[in-house]
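We recall that each integer encodes one residue's backbone shape. We quote one record:
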Amino acid sequence: MNFFPKPPTDNLYKFLAITGTWLVAIVTAFFMYLGYLTFELKKLNYEQSRMMFSESVVREIDRRLKSISEDKLDENILDWTPRSEGSDEVQFITQIKQSHLQRVKDYDSKPKPDYGYQFDLVKETGFINIVYGIIFLAVSCFYFGFRGWYSKIQKPMDLGLKLDLKIKEVSIEKMEAELALTKKSIRTHSIRRLTRR
């Protein structure tokens, strides 16, 4: 079973044009994949920044809880909490702490893919230079293939079709003229026969 189409071997220009088109599609897919990796890295970076923020909030809450337990209520005040100087504040910030600890735990439990490795691999191997070469080859094949096909194959075919059409039109006109002449001749011949009788 053949999954890929057979390359056209009847025409070099067609082969170049189709090869160029496939190469353009492959390069486009490669850059789409790099875009996907960039999106995933941004998403991972966002999750990491949220986790770091949560860790920072947990440290601030721990300092405030320590200040409250040492009865130093004026130290390490959290601007984003209601000030009640008592158990309500402790209960509130303890709940906030638990939610942030859960966020950190969730982040730590998720597997984190190493997309940086793929970017480093592309950078270190010089693969991007190969991609630029493929882009140049793709555009060249695409351009010269379609240009050669159009100028050396399609244009002569179009001219041949126009010439064939012109020949057929002239043939039809000639046949119509002969037919008209034949009809006239038949009428004249018929009239002569009738008048002789």
Notes: Helices lie at 12-69, 87-109, 115-125, 127-196.
